[in-house]
Structure formats: C-alpha cells, structure tokens
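Researcher: Structure for this, please.
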Amino acid sequence: MSAVTCCRQQRPLLRPLEFLTKCIRSFSTTPTRFVTPRKLPRSTLLPGAEGVTDTSAIPLLHNSPVAALLRRRDPFRTGVIARKKGMTAVFDAKGVRTSCTILQIDRCQVMTNKTRDEHGYWAVQVGAGERNAKNVTKPMLGHFAKCETSPKQVIKEFRIRDERGLMKPGSLINANWFRKGQLVDLRANSKGKGFAGGMKRHGFSGQPASHGNSLMHRAMGSAGQSQGGGSRVLPGKRMAGRMGGERVTIPLVKILDVNNNLNTIVVKGPVPGPIDGIVTIQDARLSHPPNISTSYKKSMVHNPSKKAPKEEKAEAATA
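Model: Predicted structure, token format:
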C-alpha cells in the first residue's frame, strides 16, 4: 500500500460546504472577539394598539396588519359630505384677493359605525341629501329605518383612528363641525373630458408644423421600440386615452369662512369636479388634529358601553 492511500485513509473527506466554510474562516483577518453583533431595534408597542386583545401582550411587528392600520394616520373625527356651489373671491384687510370655493352641506347625518372587532377597521358611515322613498330599494329602506334617518341620496364612509371617533346614529352634522383657519382634505371626482389625445392629456408639444410634415401635427409619434426593446409598448406609456373622471384628493386646504346659518364652508382655491358635484371634507391627515374635546357634543358621541334609558327601565321592571 502506497503512502498516498495511507494519507487518504487517515484523513476523512470533507463535504463541499464544510470545505468552503473552512476556507472562508482561514482567509478571515478579523479576530472573533472584535466582531460586533448587529444591533436590532427594540421591540416596542405601537401607540393605539392597546385595544387589540390578541396582540396587546406581545410586541407588534412593523409589517403586521395592525401596524399597517396604525400607520395610516387616519383622522380622529369623521368627515362630511358637501356639494360644490361655485367659485368666488374674498379680500382680506390688506386688500389681497384670494380665490375660493363655496361648499354647502345638505342634511348630513350619521348612519352607522364600523368597528374593528366586527368589520376590521374603524369608520363612520355618513349620508347626505334627500331621496324619494319610491326610488329606494327595500333593503336600503330597511337600512335607513335601522339608522333612524330618512332615505339619503349619497352615502360615504370616513375612516377614523379609533373608537373615540364613533358617533351616535342619526346625529346631524352642520358646517360648525369645522373651524375657520383649519386645514382639511378634499376629495371629489374630476370632470370627465372623454377620449383625449396626447397633447391635451399629457401636455405633449406635438410634431413640427412645417418642413414636410403632413397630417401628423398633433400625433404623439412612436410608442415603443422595435426588436431591441421587445417589440412591445412598455407599461405606463403616456398615450391617448380617457381623460378625467378620476378621484382627486387635495390635501391641506385652508378653510376661510364657516357659515352655520347657510350651512356653507368656504375653502381656499379650486375644488375638482363640476358645479353641484359631491365633495367630501375631512380633517387633514398631514396636519395636527383639531381640539376634539371641544368639537364633540355629548349627544353626538356614541358610547357603546352606556345603555339606553329604555333598556335600563326594562331591566328594572324585570328585576
């Protein structure tokens, strides 16, 4: 038996992974005692998670559904439904002219509340306007009867942060729900322009108007590559198509005036949508919330733990 075979028999064969690990360790120049461990962030409970029963005892993950719900920064209060009545201008004490839009609230009432335990999120359903009962389906008539309100023309939901924003069904919300100088978020559907070309829809400059150009003045030109780009039109390419008719949100709009007698709110600048269009108004998410302790009325706050007087009288009679 040769010396080579004796060495092979004495030394056990290493697996490929073990051999690679041994080589990496041999080339490492940093001693083990100088390697600092990676610092992990301390696991803390996110604010507002005390209402969650199944996760309040353990730290919340940053990619959990509850953490995503808390990162939404929903307002504490519900919003209102208004109609766009037109634009005008106001002058301040220094004579500076400011363009503004008048929004009017029409019989805005609270319909029902959405809770996290039952629906997965906190929200308040609000209805506005008036509708003939003959033109309403029976399921919706039952919903309006349960909410103790008349048939509404428009129904919207407003996400809120927690149970502190729940309201009593049937409560009437007027223009004094907001204050002068407050910042709000406006949402409405923009005017529909129909099918528009690239110059009108995206602001293209168009092709040359002379020098041999024939019947291609407002055309957008090439839409994609040939064989080098895959012979296709890349997603997101700006082309001709349906313009307008989309939901637009204008954040941080300042309220210039509030008239509770006319139930109108005057906001700074333009508002998307046509005249008499539906506009939703809610406290701005990117701003500090208003003082909700003075904004709420005791008769409008919904307290699920407190029993109604009729239920208390019935329990006393049965006892």
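Researcher: Any notable elements?
Model: The first strand starts at residue 80 and ends at 91. Helices lie at 3-10, 16-27, 65-70, 116-119, 138-147, 198-202, 292-295, 309-318.
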